[in-house]
From TrEMBL:
It comes from Moraxella lacunata. This is Protein of uncharacterized function (DUF459). GO terms for molecular function: phosphatidylcholine lysophospholipase activity. Residues 162-196 form a coiled coil. The chain crosses the membrane at residues 76-94. Residues 1-17, 29-42 have a biased composition (Basic and acidic residues). Pfam families: DUF459. Residues 1-42 are annotated as: Disordered. The keyword GTP-binding does not apply.
Amino acid sequence: MSEHKQDEINHINKADIDSQDNVNQANIHRKDINKEKINKENIDTENTDKEIIHQDDGNDWDNEVIILDDNFKQSFITTLMFLVLSTVIGIWIMQKSINAYYLQTYHQPSPLNLINSPLWQKGGDIGDGLYVFHDNIANNIGNMNKTMIDEFNTNHAYTPAYKAQMAEKAHQEQLRQEQERQLKAQALKENQAQNELEQSLTLNKSQKVFFAGDSMMQGIAPHMQKYLQGLGVDSVNLSKQSTGLAYPKFFDWNSIIKNTLQSDNSIKVLIVMLGANDPWDMPDKQGKYLEFNSEEWIAEYQARMKDILDFAKERQVGVIWVTPPNMKKNKLNKQMVQLNDVMMNELARHNVKVIDARPIMGGRNNVYNDYLEKDGKNIKMRSGDGIHFSGDGQRILAKEVQSYLIIE
């Protein structure tokens, strides 16, 4: 074969190879295009599915919201009805407590009192029964607990020595409670007595004040009469010098006071100041002289005081009793101290106002003093005889006495 012929054959083979390569590349290109198309279709399909899923999810959420909203409404209505019903039942059962609170707060009957239905009133009875039932349960539980504790402590926990200690402690507690009860009773009694005393010393302008006493009363009564007159209250002043309870044949204060109270129903308060002329031996009803400050003397003097005080109480007349001050002479002052004790002991048995003139007039520890120290000043309270009062002394004592009068 010639060389030229061989070249043609080689050229043809090369062309075939190139043609085959082009075909292969074309096929590869078509495959790539198809693959991209398939991928794009798959992506579009996925997106479509997702949109469908999302649409489905949205519809499900709306359905769930509707269901939840219906359930909430039903629950709310049920709860509201329960609360309203509970409130009505509570008011029905507790109506008596509500009525009591309303009355105490607004000082008028509760509107619930206007409901006269037997069914409505039955609720109040049920409420009372529930209160009693609750109290009974609480008491029973408390008693049961105490019984169990006491039984355990008595039979299992305590030694004989400890039991003895507990018994002594219980005894002391019992004594303490009894003492506390007595103190409360005494305080209540004193408070009641104080109220009664204040009431007895209260008077209006149609009633009078009666002054009875010796020369010391003669000194202070005019000041009080002037004070009362300014308030529109009348008074009766029968004070007389050198008088007392010791010598009724000279001046019988018991008879004079009782006759005056009996003859004048307008007298509401009796003010007495006696004793300065009494610290001496005195005769009894039979004329026998009794030694000053002896048991017989004390009994007789207190009996004369009691006679006046009991009659005033019987007439519903309040009493203010002013006891004598200290005296300048030692012997007389000692006698006056003893007389004050006698008077105080008797006055303590009666619900009357007692005014001790000694500290008011400047006396200290039963020692006479011409002056009263008040507000940084020394005020002369006594006259030169060491018995009677100065003008300032009269005014100060009168002001103290009249301060206990209550004028309506």
